[in-house]
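Hey, can you fold this one?
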Amino acid sequence: MRPFTTLARPFVAAPYIMNGLDALRDPRERAERVGPAVKPVADRIDWLPKDPESLVRMQGALSLGTGALLLTGRFRRLTTLLMAAQLVPVLATEHRYWTEDDAERRADERSHLLKNAGLFGALLMVASEPRRPPRLAEVRRQAREAQIKSGAEAKAMRREAALALRDARREAARQVRTARAQTGSKAAKAGGKAGKAGIKVGKAAKAGKAGGAVKNVGRAFRTNRTSKPGRVAVQAGKVKQAVKR
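Sure. Predicted structure:
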């Protein structure tokens, strides 16, 4: 409906702008026509000017301003209310067709009065309409609620993903620590076994050395029975040292 509203604004604003310009340029003719009707009202209200021409100029300036505002589309509700208010004195003071004796003149004045009355009703209808059509407002409200709901769901999903990622990192770190501990214990066990095997090998080597020394002593004893007893004693001492080691 906005294109039709934009198209209709100049047609509604044009009469107000033209009447306002005419009233500002030459207010005498209209002042003579509406002077007898507005003079009692002006006498009762202190802040209104008593001169009919000044009243006509004031009404012309108001008409020109409201027409310009409606043409630009600013303050639509306030502008239409002011336009409707301007038609109230026009309907009350102008186009009194019942006072005309000429039939053609009477029909002309009656036509103008009905046009002003129709414009007055149309302006009241426009001013009382909601700013947005109910269906469009409902659609926009639902879209806004859906957007808020989707945003909340996305936020909850991001929070759950962050928690799952944190738990996964903690589990991975725990598994790494467990694997390192298990690897260290296995290495320690293997080192202990290797140490024990080394000790056994050392003992076996010592035993082998002692056996070799005993054999050497026996061989020396057999081959050197006629040798000096001191040499045999030296060989026996070497055997004892080898056994101690």
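The chain has a mean pLDDT of 75. Let me know if you want another pass with a different chain boundary.
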